[in-house]
Amino acid sequence: MPATVTGSTRVFVVDDDEGVRRALARLLRCAGHQTEVFDSARSFLAGADLSVGPACVVLDLRLPDGNGLEVQRELNMSLPIVFLTGHGDISTTVDAMKAGAADFLVKPVDDNILLEAVGRALLRATQMYESRQELAEIQLRLASLTPREREVMALVVTGRLNKQVAFDLGIAEKTIKIHRARVMEKMKARSLADLIHLSDKVSIGGFASARCSARPR
Amino acid sequence: VQIGMPNHGIFHKAIVAVNGWRRAPWHSRFRPRAVLADLSRFGWRLSTPIVVEPQKVFPIPGRAQEHHVCIGEVPLIGASMRDTLEIVPVAILCVDTTGMITFINAKARLLFGYCSDELAGASANLLIPEWQAHGARAMVTQPPCSDSLLHTAIARRRDGAEFPAEVTMGPCRIDGEPAHLAVVVERSERKELKCNRQELAHLTRVSALGELAGSLAHELNQPLTAILSNSQAAQRFMEADPIDVDEVRETLEDIVADNRRAGEIIRKMRALVRKCDMEWQSVDIGGVVHDVLSLVRADAIVRGIHTTLDVAPAIPPVRGDKVQLQQVLLNLMLNALDAVQHRPADDRLVTVRASTETDGSVRLSVRDRGHGLTIEQMDKIFQPFFTSKPHGLGLGLSISRSIVSAHGGRIWAENNAEGGAAFHVSLPSVPVAGEHQKCPQP
Questions:
Q1: Comparing A122 with B63, which gets the higher pLDDT?
Q2: Nearest to B172 by CA among B84, B75, B251, B242
Q3: Given an 8 Å threshold on Cβ–Cβ distance, is A23 in contact with B229?
């Protein structure tokens, strides 16, 4: 497992202090990272393109236009955050970590500590990016199902047999077989196990409710 | 009544003198010796008809005059003079050679706790017990201009309570009889206002800095962070082959700049904590604003408060003590930050403005979007120990006011039309300092 992920990854540096911004970006740059700097929470949220590829952010906890925790809320786990703070009190640290921060570092930060934290964050970002891509793909497939096919899929993945599904939905087993084949084809699942795996990845609330309402008793 | 001039003229002069005293900055107010000299001059004027030397009928006011009164001529006190002394807001009493009180003014009666007429003919050592020991005659025969003119004594109130007082003695004549005019200033009052003033100002500065300690630490931490990261980046650059000299040079330049920045923050902090006498110099108000803002900036950020700065170009310098003026702005800023701290995000705004007025004076304004001031607060905010904060000392604004008035300026508060309060400081600028010694009107 590589310590750092280079290539298409980016590191955003958000700090209102120009000196700190320059220094951090320089350090990250000489460790081979691609950096983009922002001087405020607003400019970061408005200007950073998060869709391009895996990225993480080194975020100052105190910003003139809002604190880092607000930015964290706004980002909603979409990219890993390495917090940097002048003095991290316990409650803020706990809040940040609970909300899913990748790391919480105290200024001044040693280069190795920062680079390791950024490396870990980028690794996580890459994984997150890949699973997000995969999820988007599965959701696209799911969206192509008809309502009836979704109902059939919801029941099939719980392990119910075709005839049980037919009974649950009050339709012929033959019809269920056709629906099931369509589901397998549209979801690009080669086996029932594959389909269950896919449905686990996108745990959609609709599945469970469809199953409950479909059950007669 | 021995009068050579029309009554109203004397009264007019006396009232001008009293008003001048009232308006004078604190340091000259508490100079009983000067007050006494002024009063003596009036007394002397009253006595002019019986003075033989003709050149003294229309004396030229000034130091020579005062000196003359001290060593030679003994002023006379007449009925008009008594009326004048009565309204002077300084405790004054006249004691004859036998040690009897022949006159005591309203302020002195208030100070000692007596009603009018109660003391007529009473012995002066009732008020200042130690006079008994020396004897009133000894007092009168003392050389009037010696250093013993001003001395500290224990004074006694009507209820028996004793208090330290500073007594300034001067010879005069009452209805032709030699007597003494004594100005009594309660020492605690004097001490609080003068002796402890610097101490108090220093204390509030230190406590204000204490409030800011966290944010100052942050402010220092920023350049330290930059220096560490830059140095470590430079180390990494040095390991590369070939070494990117330009990159290393740029990094070193940044390190130097950040180091200077840290030094500057420490210098500003030191200046505020420094304990020293007032240092009068030409002060750039824009510089004061920038210095103070750099100290409170981090604090404002932590509290989610937006600060805006509007410094007009070409503001003339003012004459004064830079540290004290910084302290005034620091107090106003900290108050403003407190006022908006718990407001909704849109109202967490503090605006600092520095500008030149049409009359040439310099105006500093700190506006907040807090709750504003009630009428009651408006009356009391500048009084010592008045505070609306749970942990406030209540000294910030009163010290600010005394600093501003020592600079010949004015400080006042008002509510903004759009909500919140605004504090204004108006200071006379250097080129027109002579004309604007008086407080400019808002």
A1: A122
A2: B75
A3: yes
